[in-house]
Amino acid sequence: MDYDPRIIPGPASAHGAMSIERLLPEPSRDREAPFTATRFTLPPQGTSALDHHDERELWVVLSGEGTLSVNGKALSLGPGDAVYFPPRYSHQLRNDSAQPLVVLSVYWRDGG
Questions:
Q1: What is the value of pTM for the model shown?
Q2: pLDDT tens for residues 31-47?
Q3: Measured distance CA(22)–CA(11) in Å, rounded
């Protein structure tokens, strides 16, 4: 079996100020991951919408710098930083820099 493990991002879609690319699960492959992975980009000085949901979520900052607000607490983030959100925690990200802020997001529901 000739298997190529590289992930081909889906087309970017706009979500407020952010541009989001779905990484997994890939619609072009006949497999399902127990999680969803996306890469999102927040433009310089942009702010994401305030978000909260039932999924658990992990972010890894790939590039750029910003301020994350989690349940009202502000945290500075930069390349290599990782953060985890339990279900229903409100979160919002602001890009404080002149460069795009790029984040890998992995999220899943309990039990899968």
A1: 0.85
A2: 677 888 999 999 999 99
A3: 7
